[in-house]
Design brief:
Radius of gyration: 26 Å
Strand content: 15-25%
Helix content: 25-40%
Oligomer: single chain
Shape: globular
Structural class: alpha+beta
Number of strands: 19
């Protein structure tokens, strides 16, 4: 039959010139800047090392898409804003993504959504299933995340602060481990994240019918042990909100020379302890008409749950219309941290971790729509690795530039999403950008830093 798909389109003229749009047979991509991500991966060897955390029991003679290629395709896709496996059905013919994935012949198609889905639906246990022969090791991936963090420092730091937090991942199906969470008001998972500054050390998927701190002790034990094998003299401080203020975690820290500062939920006994500072804050508020803070500290022990008395720091604050007291429990001594500096300069900074969690969501960490908890954990790992890759670009390529602290959405939009033409010859692959790209100098600076 006659091919009648229209490929040329006429639009309203621009003064004396005709305006015509046309689909042509040249190779174009909207992700030209992704070559910088490829350089960041070359520096860290992230994707190759991640592939070593998997077992691939497919018949080598029947494999069309290698495991490392599929992992690279998925991680680069998330970093570039392709959230769904369905996107990869349209990306199969993208020559630049094929080069990022490591295809020898970039004109060959990449893995489709069904192949990628089989990789992600890893069953756990033996890989004798006819369709699911790829398996992964949680322990190996967890170890890799901490290794990448340790390698990012040229020398051991004097002190590091590990931030712990939990967040909700809404669910809309009948996934394994799905429960209704009363605080968030919907069915969700409750993953645990552990960061050190911008570095991701742990992303553990959990059901939501548990305490926010559930499993955090095991994760802290694992991470601290791995850090101390490399940095024996580095001081470690844990920082978290009141959801992690638990006896087992504080006792373990005290026994293993790990300091901590946790939020502490208010109660009537605590309110009575700060009655005098609270009156002082109210008086200051009446005199100035502005929010007033008075800091104090005292030794405190709960009646049942704590095994010993601990240092509690209190902020007695009066704001418009109400009192706003806050409490912290800490192992840090007053000689190092006065109540005011402990609260304002150490504890309050933990709010920055919420921005790091938001970056996980911009990398589609909440797309957990498979049936089992294990396969959803793998999707969380893939999003985490996409974050680590983008953070490597930020750390290695953007340091000292105006985008050194840019969010991953900004980096993606301005530095990676560059329209380009791909030309393939016998000896070269040309990626041709528009000369009107507005951040050419920054691009050149990032390239130079990554090629050092």
């Amino acid at each position: 039959m006659t091919q009648c798909t229209q490929i040329q389109f006429s639009f309203e003229a621009h003064y004396s010139r005709k305006v015509i749009a046309e689909f042509e047979d040249s190779r174009l991509t909207s992700d030209g800047g992704s070559l910088l991500l490829r350089e960041a991966n070359r520096k860290t060897r992230l994707i190759g090392r991640l592939a070593q955390c998997f077992q691939d029991k497919r018949d080598p003679e029947r494999i069309e898409h290698r495991l490392q290629e599929m992992l690279a395709q998925r991680i680069y896709g998330l970093a570039l804003g392709y959230e769904d496996l369905n996107d990869h059905e349209q990306l199969r013919q993208d020559p630049l993504l094929a080069m990022l994935a490591g295809k020898r012949e970039i004109s060959e198609p990449l893995a489709g959504k069904s192949t990628l889905n089989r990789m992600e639906l890893t069953p756990g246990g033996s890989a004798e299933d006819r369709y699911h022969k790829i398996n992964y090791s949680e322990a190996a991936i967890d170890h890799l995340l901490v290794d990448l963090f340790l390698e990012s420092y040229p020398t051991a730091p004097r002190q590091i602060i590990l931030d712990l937090d939990a967040t909700d991942m809404p669910l809309y199906g009948k996934q394994e481990g799905r429960f209704f969470h009363g605080y968030y008001g919907h069915y969700c998972y409750l993953p645990l994240y552990i960061f050190c500054d911008d570095h991701l050390l742990c992303a553990r998927l959990r059901s939501s019918n548990i305490d926010a701190s559930a499993g955090s002790l095991e994760e802290v034990q694992r991470i601290v042990a791995q850090i101390r094998t490399r940095w024996a003299k580095t001081r470690i401080i844990l920082r978290a909100d009141s959801g992690f203020c638990r006896e087992e975690l504080m006792s373990w820290c005290e026994q293993h020379q790990v300091d901590y500062v946790f939020g502490f939920a208010r109660n009537k006994r605590l309110r009575r302890k700060i009655a005098s500072p609270m009156r002082e804050a109210k008086q200051q508020y009446r005199q100035t008409g502005r929010p007033a803070r008075v800091f104090t500290e005292f030794r405190y022990r709960t009646r049942q749950s704590w095994s010993r008395a601990r240092r509690v720091v209190a902020k007695a604050e009066q704001i418009a219309g109400k009192e706003n007291p806050r409490f912290l429990v800490t192992s840090l001594r007053e000689q190092e941290w006065t109540p005011k500096t402990l609260y304002e300069q150490l504890y309050c900074v933990r709010g920055e971790m919420e921005n790091r969690i938001k970056e996980q969501l911009s990398l589609f960490a909440d797309r957990l729509s498979t049936e089992t908890l294990r396969s959803n954990q793998l999707r969380l790992y893939l999003s985490s690795m996409a974050y680590v890759l983008l953070h490597s670009l930020r750390r290695l390529g953007l340091q000292g530039t105006e985008w050194a602290k840019a969010q991953v959405q900004t980096i993606r939009l301005r530095l990676l999403k560059i329209a380009a033409q791909v030309q393939i010859t016998a000896r070269r692959i040309w990626i041709l950008y528009s000369f009107s790209y507005p951040w050419k100098d920054l691009y050149a600076s990032v390239w130079s830093a990554l090629r050092c």
